[in-house]
Specification:
Elements: H1 2-8, H2 10-22, H3 45-53, E1 57-64, H4 70-76, H5 83-91, E2 98-103, E3 107-114, H6 117-132, H7 136-142, E4 144-147, H8 149-160, H9 171-183, H10 191-211, H11 221-237, E5 246-249, H12 253-264, E6 269-274, H13 278-286, E7 291-296, H14 300-305, E8 309-312, H15 323-328, E9 337-341, E10 358-361, H16 367-376, H17 378-402, H18 404-431, H19 438-464, H20 469-482, H21 488-499
Parallel strand pairs: 5-6, 5-8, 6-7, 8-9, 9-10
Antiparallel strand pairs: 1-3, 1-4, 2-3
Length: 500
């Protein structure tokens, strides 16, 4: 669904790209790592509600493993601690009212809300071009753009794990939750619309995992890496997977998940290469049944030299292993060696494949591994999509309810105008009667308010409770026509006739 919608937006995307190169916009000052120096003033709750009621539309613009090459994704990757800084930078010029960034190993997406789609898309495209330094032609081939209900549905599928490389994987739900939490922080740019959308998406992801079996079995990039190495071991190394000597570079969350899946296949021994001892020692405690050898980074090439399969999962922005490094460290003699890179940016240079015996794989190579998982989960995906549609409809209904706020305000103002006009006439006459006290005049004023409030309660309740978008729009039109809310001249004319 997301891919089809993305294709339908190609023309809009091309026009946006053209405009973004022409617009002269003042951008917030940035520091050396690209984060914003000054941030926008945090809007009050009342201001956010007013903006939301004026028709902020939800958009998403980004790239994922389904649309973009890893070389492009790594150019745009943003560390989590910079998500809010970059969101503020996007919003700093005024075209985008709300923004939230989701940057993971397999996707980079910017969710944003704005009243003018054309200007907002141009601003976000300008941000992407400046950050990546990539030619527009490259961005055009890799990026997708969705808006409105399509953007909402995309986020629901992302949170539910249906858009993941491994269908149903649980990490993405945690990442969407972090995106939501950052968006509502003091320096976040979530606003009323995006924060509600992200919160709904988290709730949707939880429902999918608790009410279906989509998260059962192998559901992470780490598990897919294990499956890939197990499948290719005999072909690449002429060695059963159970006999292969294993090592992993890095000791973060991906490594922990990797060891979890290896242990489920009977792993007995593995070497961990890391910059420090703390995290590998934590892994030793978590996996007491696995013989974990800890090696500091200066011993990397000794470990590579005595391993058959090396997994890499570090946060290094540079290659940890490439052709030149392999040659410099005597690993170019033709010995079979499998390198499985599950990091973004990549840890293993693609030129490693030029050496005899070396077989490098990266996250893009995992697609074939997970194809069977997707097929096995088709039935669960259908059930999951039914749940996600419920949550998407819930948000869309709430979003449409905001459009009733201006009409409700107009209705209250119009009714109050008539009330005060009639009350003035009444109080002028009553005040001429010496028997009426100020307290009694106040009672008359309260009576007028009470009558108006009770008269308006029914129409406003009907407006708020309209079940569908179509019924809500019809109710808005009926009330506007019935109370002549769009006819200011009619109201003034009635006031003049009343005074005569």
């Amino acid at each position: 669904a997301a891919a089809a919608a993305a294709a339908s937006n190609t023309a809009l995307f091309a026009a946006t790209l053209g405009d973004s190169t022409q617009q002269q916009q003042q951008v917030a000052t940035t520091n050396s790592n690209g984060s914003a120096a000054p941030t926008k003033r945090k809007k009050t709750k009342a201001e956010r509600l007013e903006l939301a009621s004026k028709g902020l539309q939800v958009h998403v613009l980004g790239l994922s493993i389904h649309h973009a090459q890893v070389e492009v994704r790594e150019k745009l990757a943003i560390p989590e601690h910079e998500w809010n800084d970059q969101s503020n930078l996007i919003c700093s010029t005024g075209q985008v009212e709300e923004a939230a960034i989701l940057s993971t190993c397999n996707r980079f997406e910017i969710y944003f809300a704005a009243s003018d789609a054309h200007e907002a898309n141009a601003r976000v495209m300008e941000f992407l071009a400046q950050r990546s330094g990539l030619p527009v032609s490259v961005l055009r081939r890799n990026i997708f753009m969705l808006e409105g209900d399509d953007a909402v549905w995309h986020l629901m599928r992302v949170a539910g794990g249906l858009d993941s490389l491994v269908v149903g994987e649980g990490q993405i739900l945690s990442q969407v939750r972090q995106c939501h939490l950052h968006s509502i922080e003091e320096d976040g740019c979530g606003g009323k619309v995006l924060s509600r959308l992200l919160n709904n998406a988290v709730a949707a992801g939880k429902r999918v995992r608790s009410e279906t079996a989509i998260s059962k079995g192998s559901v992470s990039i780490s598990s897919a890496a294990v499956e890939l190495s197990e499948q290719m071991c005999m072909k690449d190394l002429n060695l059963p997977f159970s006999e292969a000597r294993l090592a992993v570079v890095g000791a973060g969350t991906m490594t922990r998940l990797l060891i979890t899946h290896l242990a489920s296949r009977g792993l007995e021994r593995i070497a961990i290469v890391n910059r420090s001892m703390a995290r590998p020692m934590e892994l030793q405690e978590q996996f007491p049944d696995v013989d974990i050898e800890i090696v500091l980074e200066d011993g990397l090439w000794d470990v590579v030299g005595r391993s058959d399969i090396v997994y890499t999962a570090t946060s290094s922005p540079d290659y940890v292993i490439d052709k030149a490094l392999l040659e410099a460290n005597g690993q170019d003699g033709g010995r079979p060696l499998m390198l499985v890179d599950i990091a973004v940016p990549r840890n293993i240079g693609p030129d490693s494949d030029e050496l005899d015996g070396v077989k490098p794989y990266n996250v893009d190579d995992l697609k074939a591994v997970v194809a069977k998982n997707t097929a096995m989960r088709q039935r669960e995906m259908i059930e999951a999509e039914c749940l996600l549609h419920e949550e998407a409809d819930s948000f869309i209904g709430w979003r449409e309810s905001l459009s009733a706020i201006p009409t409700i305000n107009q209705l209250q103002e119009r009714a109050n105008l008539f009330r005060t006009e009639e009350l003035k006439k009444c109080t002028r006459k009553l005040s001429q009667n010496d028997n009426f006290t100020d307290r009694e005049l106040e009672a008359v004023e309260r009576l007028s308010r009470g009558i108006v409030n009770k008269m308006l309660h029914g129409p406003m309740s009907h407006l708020r409770k309209a079940e569908s978008v179509e019924k809500k729009q019809a109710a808005l039109s009926e009330l506007s026509s019935m109370f002549r809310l769009d006819d200011e001249q009619g109201a003034r004319g009635r006031g003049r006739r009343t005074r005569r």
